[in-house]
Amino acid sequence: MKISINGLDKAFESRIKLGIMAALAVNQTLDFNSLKEFLDVTDGNLASHLKALEKDEFIRVEKSFVDKKSNTSYAATELGRKAFSDHLNALEKLIKGVAE
Q: DSSP letters along 57-100, please?
């Protein structure tokens, strides 16, 4: 029996990118520190994965000031939400295919 992995999106192979998209799927926006706390990762590691998702246009970045301190927040784009949903559906089909 063959199983298909064709629907899986390479952009979400990293557990950190998967975690970022999962967090942004259930939150309208999250700031850098919240994402860092949710995922328990280093600044550099989180920043590099956020940059990659931004480059793919899966997330949107907004910079502002809160109490004179810079604040960067992130939100999933429509493209990102669709790609993430498609990836989850492909994972579900893969798991069901293996289980049958």
A: TSEEEEEEEETTEEEEEEEE-HHHHHHHHHHHHHHHHHHHHHH-
Residue 1, pLDDT above cutoff 70: no
- Indicate the SS3 state at residue 27: coil
Q: How far is CA 16 from the centre of its chain?
A: 7
Among 37, 61, 39, 42, CA closest to 50? 61
What digits encode the pLDDT tens for the residues 43-84? Answer: 999 999 999 999 999 999 999 988 888 899 999 999 999 999
